[in-house]
Amino acid sequence: MVPPGFEDAVAWMALEQQGHPEHWQVSFAVDDRDAAAASAENLGATVLSSEDEVWTRTATVRDPQGAVFVLSQFTPPTK
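RE: above sequence
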């Protein structure tokens, strides 16, 4: 269960990284980041990175045509 509005955010401005200008970053909410990343790889994508943050587990993926997007699993902190 995700909080209201979490799945409504599908594109963000990615922070500027050294050598890369700011750009749009498209995100897809998924139930299981690892399963979604494995499925993407089975379909020809490349997983570029994975991160575990306080509220999300993400994987940045490049599809076979070169488009880059993020798979985002909501993971609220436990008390």
